[in-house]
Amino acid sequence: MTTQSPALRHRARMLAERTAGAAAPLGVTTGTAYELMLYKLADDRRRLKSIQSVERKIEVKATLLPEYTQWIDGVLAGGKGAQDDVFATLLVWHIDTGEYERALVMAAYALEYKFTLPETYSRDIATLMLDEFAEGYLHGKLAADPQHAAQVLCAVEQLTAAHDAPDQARAKLHKAIGLSMVAVLDQADDTDIAPALIASAEQAMDHLKRARSLSEACGVKKDMERLERRIKRAAGSA
């Protein structure tokens, strides 16, 4: 990665901001600066396509993302909502690499202005977020910190609530939220739920119930049964 001076980084950000701001709201981003970013992205994608290992692809994406920082910052600061395929693709890359907070900021902008993903992606942004953030907890980095995961996943739920998406994808997110909340309870007490935490346990149960109501195949039945027994024991101790 080439290290730019602060002056060059500032110039790149201002150029991105002016380019994004010049495009009509809900139109399409154009201009020389944008074309150069599209060219760079195409080049980086060719490099990624030559790599067979998914793990290695993610590692390379993580090294590439800082090169796009000024473009993203400029779009967020000056953009009026014009479709930007570079920005949309980088949103996916941030999720892929576990840069979840940055991805949430980008997603809020992209969803507000009804961005679409490039044709190489089969899902829309809302569905992709539901799937990938849930997967980040169920089988990924988010599981390392359940309390942080619960906050991030709830933010995804709020961002996507008004957007159409398959029931299975939304069920997956509710499952991840519920299980992350259960994991937080486990950290507080790995055997029984303290009476003071019954409300938190019931909130976790609500998410698991919602997941099952959306998709019975989501696999939360046994988790619900275990949590129900723990809530009853806690209520009896209260």
Q: How is this structure best described in words?
A:
InterPro entries: Phage_P2_GpM (IPR010270). This is Phage small terminase subunit. The protein is mainly α. It folds into two domains: 1-122; 123-238, no CATH class. It is built from eleven helices and no strands.
In short:
This protein is an all-alpha fold and 238 residues long.
Please tell me how large the radius of gyration is: 21 Å
Instruction: Give the class from helix and strand content and strand pairing.
Output: mainly alpha
β-strand amount: under 5%
Spans where pLDDT lies below 50 across 5 or more residues: none
Tally of helical segments: 11
Estimate nothing, just give the exact number of structural domains: 2
- Strands, total number: 0
* N-to-C SSE string, H for helix and E for strand: HHHHHHHHHHH
Please state the overall shape, judged from the principal axes of the Cα atoms. Answer: elongated
Q: Determine the N-to-C terminus distance.
A: 58 Å
State the helicity in percent bands. Answer: 55-70%
Biggest β-sheet, characterized? Answer: none
InterPro entries: Phage_P2_GpM
Protein name: Phage small terminase subunit
Organism: Duganella phyllosphaerae
GO molecular function: DNA binding; endonuclease activity
List keywords for this structure.
11 helices; 238 residues; elongated; Phage small terminase subunit; Phage_P2_GpM; single chain; endonuclease activity; mainly alpha
